[in-house]
């Protein structure tokens, strides 16, 4: 058993966030020499180099990034147990922190209720929905247990693990008129109004990589799938929308896929750090890992 003090873990997490020894020491209310000694004591006890001191600002080593998640988990478990013993926790539930892209939080997470809401685990979910890049940063910074997002090169290798959920598709769609016919069709008119994703958004980048365009007549741009969907439903123009977000609208005939534009595939994943998490999180991960990938999440019940 390692002789590790909890204050060392808090020191390390503060340093990982601020990336500066003097600033972290000030926050922890100790002198910089004392703070540096505590970080070195933690590294010595673990037998690991956690900090790359050759860089300015400092960076975590690969082992440091992995241990950051471990430190967060240890402190959270300790807080949960103390709260439980003191009778102040909410039914003794462990909080599972989830970061997700907006569209997946709304359309995909509820479909995984059997894994996420297993009553035998007595969990409380804390779900934060963000722009894709912000959601990814939540995982990188160790601020969530699981990330629900799209394919990311940097998350397909250590210190991360992933579960492939399946392949979705971005379809070019239009609202319909009272006869069920598309309000707009670029096959007939290449100047119909289009609702585009911002170039820096994940969807925008995916469309650029696939060399997919709409029309020159862009009337609005946004990074939010749900906002664009609302405008499409109001008949403001055509756009690309992921199948999982428009399943019901397509089935009800309120939207129609425009075949003049080829769909764009999107691979959906769940990510986490390699470091061992709280037993509740590990149980959820085990359940999620058993999900069979589906090509076209639109068909998932």
Describe this structure in words.
- With 301 residues, the chain is an alpha/beta fold.
- The chain has 11 helices and 12 strands.
- The strands form 3 sheets. Strands 3, 4, 5, 6, 9, 10, 11 and 12 form an 8-stranded mixed beta sheet that branches. A two-stranded antiparallel ribbon has the order 1-2. A two-stranded parallel ribbon has the order 7-8.
- This is LysR family transcriptional regulator.
Q: How do the strands and helices of this protein lay out in sequence?
A:
Blueprint: H1 6-18, H2 21-27, H3 32-46, E1 51-52, E2 59-60, H4 62-86, E3 94-101, H5 102-107, H6 113-116, E4 123-130, H7 132-140, E5 146-150, E6 160-175, E7 194-197, H8 202-209, E8 218-222, H9 225-233, E9 239-242, H10 243-251, E10 255-257, E11 264-273, H11 279-289, E12 294-295
Parallel strand pairs: 3-4, 3-5, 6-12, 7-8
Antiparallel strand pairs: 1-2, 5-11, 6-9, 6-10, 6-11
- Major β-sheet annotation: 8 strands, mixed
Coarse morphology:
elongated
Overall radius of gyration? 23 Å
Kindly estimate the percentage of residues that lie in beta strands according to DSSP.
15-25%
Mean pLDDT: 89
Order of helices and strands: HHHEEHEHHEHEEEHEHEHEEHE
Oligomer: single chain
Q: Structural class per helix/strand content? A: alpha/beta
Cα end-to-end separation: 47 Å
In which range does the helix fraction lie? 25-40%
Helical stretch count? 11
Q: Care to count the β-strands?
A: 12
Low-confidence stretches: 297-301
Which descriptors would you attach to this protein?
301 residues; eight-stranded mixed beta sheet; 11 helices; 12 strands; 23% strand; elongated
């Amino acid at each position: 058993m390692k002789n590790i003090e909890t204050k060392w873990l808090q020191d390390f997490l503060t340093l990982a966030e601020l990336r500066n020894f003097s600033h972290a020491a000030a926050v922890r209310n100790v002198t910089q020499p004392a703070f540096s000694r505590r970080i070195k004591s933690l590294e010595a006890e673990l037998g690991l180099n956690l900090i790359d001191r050759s860089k300015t600002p400092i960076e975590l080593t690969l082992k440091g990034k992995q241990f950051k998640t471990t430190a967060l988990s240890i402190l959270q478990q300790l807080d949960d147990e103390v709260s439980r013993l003191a009778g102040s926790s909410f039914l003794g539930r462990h909080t599972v922190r989830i970061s997700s892209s907006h569209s997946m939080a709304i359309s995909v997470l509820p479909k995984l209720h059997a894994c996420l809401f297993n009553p035998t685990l007595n969990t409380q979910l804390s779900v934060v929905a963000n722009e894709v890049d912000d959601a990814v940063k939540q995982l990188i910074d160790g601020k969530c247990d699981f990330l629900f997002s799209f394919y990311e090169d940097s998350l397909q290798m250590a210190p991360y693990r992933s579960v492939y959920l399946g392949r979705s598709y971005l379809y070019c769609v239009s609202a319909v008129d009272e006869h069920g016919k598309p309000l707009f069709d670029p096959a007939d008119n290449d100047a119909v109004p289009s609702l585009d994703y911002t170039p820096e958004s994940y969807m925008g980048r995916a469309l650029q990589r696939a060399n997919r365009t709409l029309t020159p007549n862009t009337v609005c741009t946004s990074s939010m799938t749900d906002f664009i969907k609302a405008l499409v439903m109001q008949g403001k123009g055509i756009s690309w929308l992921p199948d999982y977000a428009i399943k019901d609208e397509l089935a009800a005939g309120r939207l129609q896929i425009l075949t003049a534009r080829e769909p764009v595939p999107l691979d959906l994943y769940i990510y986490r750090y390699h470091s061992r998490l709280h037993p509740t999180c590990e149980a959820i991960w085990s359940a999620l890992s058993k999900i069979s990938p589906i090509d076209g999440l639109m068909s998932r019940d």
